[in-house]
Write a structure and sequence with these properties.
The chain has six helices and five strands, in the order ββαβββααααα.
């Protein structure tokens, strides 16, 4: 039976009617029209559906929407308001870190979470921070370079 579930999405209080075990990913995309969050594998292995829940990185394909009750969820659309995002977006473009685009939103959400925790990450920090995200196109080097470049740009501000 569907129930009303309330949570904050990208800074705005939202309520949805959903089955408690319905995936947060589906609610975000279908009910809230936040289609920037992508489905890759549906098994929590690829990171394409990454969002921040109360500031922590989560794969939304594995989160029952009932677990989002009372939380704050930030999607790629909400991440765009983050100061680091502009530098990250530019770095992804300049370094060739985005190709087909399926993994890009999840990579960017993971990178923003990493840069919030570690504004000056080492190469190992970046690899670890993005380790839950798979990319089938770039070979990762461009993505790692993009995150390092974004960290340098935001540190210089």
């Amino acid at each position: 039976m569907k129930t009303e579930i309330s949570f904050v999405v990208n800074g705005e209080r939202r309520s949805v009617r959903a089955y408690p075990m319905e995936r947060l990913l589906d609610v975000l995309r279908q009910q809230l029209s936040l289609t920037g969050t992508k489905e890759g594998c549906g098994e929590g292995e690829c990171g394409a559906c990454s969002v921040l829940i109360d500031g922590e990185l989560a794969t939304s394909c594995l989160v029952p929407v009932a677990q989002a009750e009372g939380t704050s969820v930030v999607t790629i659309e909400g991440v765009a308001a983050n100061l680091r995002f502009g530098a990250l977006r530019e770095a992804f473009l300049n370094c060739g870190g985005a190709q087909c685009g399926i993994c890009t939103p999840g990579m960017m959400v993971a990178a923003v979470a990493l840069l919030a925790r570690k504004p000056n990450p080492t190469a190992d920090d970046i690899r670890e921070g993005l380790s839950g995200n798979l990319c089938r196109c770039t070979g990762y080097l461009q993505i790692l370079e993009a995150v390092a470049e974004a960290a340098r740009r935001t540190a210089a501000r």
